[in-house]
Write a structure and sequence with these properties.
The chain is of the alpha+beta class and 444 residues long. Helices cover 32% and strands 25% of the residues. The chain has two domains: 30-233 and 356-439, Zn peptidases (Aminopeptidase, 3-Layer(aba) Sandwich); 235-354, Alpha-Beta Plaits (2-Layer Sandwich), CATH 3.30.70.360. The two termini are 43 Å apart.
Length: 444
């Protein structure tokens, strides 16, 4: 919902951006802190971003992003209507690659994992910034991905997460290529695969296993809607747990260890786990299954378990608690039937590991993002979530995820929507200003 702006006057000659603020957080995002209040004395970083915004070529690019907002929305819808279910992002990746080529982005290619990578070089040497959006969605193959429009409201699976991020990435790349902005360094424009769910961040992991890793100075992901800055990465350990036995008739074979009973003991133990509230750490049994009939001792009891924390240390601690609970449940169920020779086994499969990490609030990339929001007059809270930025955070590489503007609702649902009504164009403007604030503008 709309929140109060941090109003300010732009420096002389700067593009006069409307000062209307809003913020929409995707499910799972946790706001933590906010920029300095209006009226506080500008910091050196804030003055630097003001100066970047005042550069004529930058002001022209910002104006173009507002003027060409329909083009950005066209890309958002076009990409969204190309199915990109988990592990099957190839068609959307091809379309994204072709768009980069048509925009004039250089050295466009795909790596072995399926990521699309292109380059925009500045007018002089400088650092390398990655600007990325993710190609995949959570929706299974066969989902109707047609986008419907009613005025400024767009509805369709993935329209915000992350078709918005892909469109913003393209819009910013378009201005970097065509706007003749004399920035330093290099921007790697990337569309990643495997950000969602079982994808387990496989695309960004591959990026940071490649030779590019050593040259990347800052990683920026654009994911979702609103104006949040994610600089805390929620880590997760996910397991499929199986208790396995021979099974038998519920009456005739009674007296043997029961995998579902073992599963029940384990679930009861998980429910009693003790975790800290700070750093926030959570556990959940999300799916259970097993058995064939009401009068059969099951051959297996299965559950999927999710552990999460913003702290790697806390995540490791709850993981250790979980493993102890699972082993104890096995031994308790076996001990319940000491006269039985029937075996009972425990099998644990890892189905997802996401590293926890963070980029400090005081880091330059966070301060530039906050300063750019201040320059534009938008409210940008710092948040914690699980995004592509988790991987570089763990590696100690400055990384944040930026929202893409506008208002989104219902992420990961079939009625997901994106509303561009008030300030959608400010998303690409903000991201461009962050990129240029990091790289610097001027000189040749």
């Amino acid at each position: 919902m709309p929140l109060p702006s941090h109003h300010r006057f732009l420096p002389s000659g700067a593009f006069p951006l409307p000062l209307l603020a809003s913020v929409t957080l995707l499910g799972g995002l946790a706001p933590r802190s906010v920029p300095a209040q209006a009226g506080s004395r500008p910091s050196a970083v804030e003055r630097g971003v003001d100066q970047v915004a005042a550069q004529p070529t930058v002001a022209q690019a910002l104006a173009a992003l507002q003027r060409d907002n329909a083009w950005t929305l066209e890309q958002q819808v076009g990409l969204c209507e190309i199915p990109a279910p988990p592990f099957k992002e190839a068609a959307r990746a091809l379309a994204f690659r072709d768009l980069l080529v048509r925009l004039g982005v250089q050295h466009v290619r795909q790596d072995g994992e399926g990521n699309v990578i292109g380059e925009v070089r500045g007018t002089r040497p400088g650092p390398t910034v990655v600007l990325s959006g993710h190609l995949d969605t959570v929706f299974p193959e066969g989902t109707n991905v047609k986008v419907t429009r009613r005025g400024t409201l767009f509805t369709g699976p993935g329209i915000g997460d992350d078709c918005r991020g892909l469109a913003v990435t393209l819009a910013v790349a378009r201005q970097l290529v065509s706007g003749a902005i004399p920035f330093a360094g290099r921007v790697l424009v990337v569309g990643t695969v495997g950000e969602e769910g079982a994808g387990n961040l496989r695309g960004v992991r591959a990026l940071f296993r490649s030779p590019l890793r050593d040259s990347i100075g800052v990683f920026l992901s654009v994911d979702g809607t609103g104006f949040g800055i994610t600089n805390g990465g929620v880590g997760s350990n996910r397991y499929r747990v199986r208790y396995l036995g021979p099974g038998g008739h519920s009456y005739g074979a009674f007296g043997m260890p029961n995998p579902i009973h073992a599963l029940g003991r384990a679930i009861a133990g998980i429910a009693q786990l003790q975790v800290p509230s700070t750093p926030k750490t959570t556990f959940n049994v999300g799916i259970i299954s097993g058995g064939t009939s009401v009068n059969s001792i099951a051959m297996e009891g299965v559950m999927d378990v999710d552990l999460r924390s913003e702290s790697a240390t806390a995540l490791a601690a709850v993981d250790a608690q979980l493993m102890a609970v699972l082993r104890r449940a096995l031994e308790e169920e076996k001990g319940r039937w000491p006269g039985s020779t029937a075996p009972l086994a425990l099998k644990i499969d890892t189905i997802g590991l996401r590293p926890a990490g963070s980029t400090p609030d005081s880091s330059r990339v966070v301060q530039v993002a906050l300063a750019a929001a201040r320059t534009m007059g938008v409210y940008a809270p710092l948040t914690i979530s699980s995004t592509d930025a988790n991987v570089p955070m763990e590696l100690g590489i400055p990384a944040i995820t930026l929202d893409g503007g506008g208002v989104g609702r219902g992420a990961h649902g079939s009625e997901e929507s994106y509303d561009d009504r008030t300030d959608g164009y400010k998303g690409p403007q903000w991201v461009l200003l962050v990129v240029l604030g990091l790289l610097g503008v001027g000189g040749r």
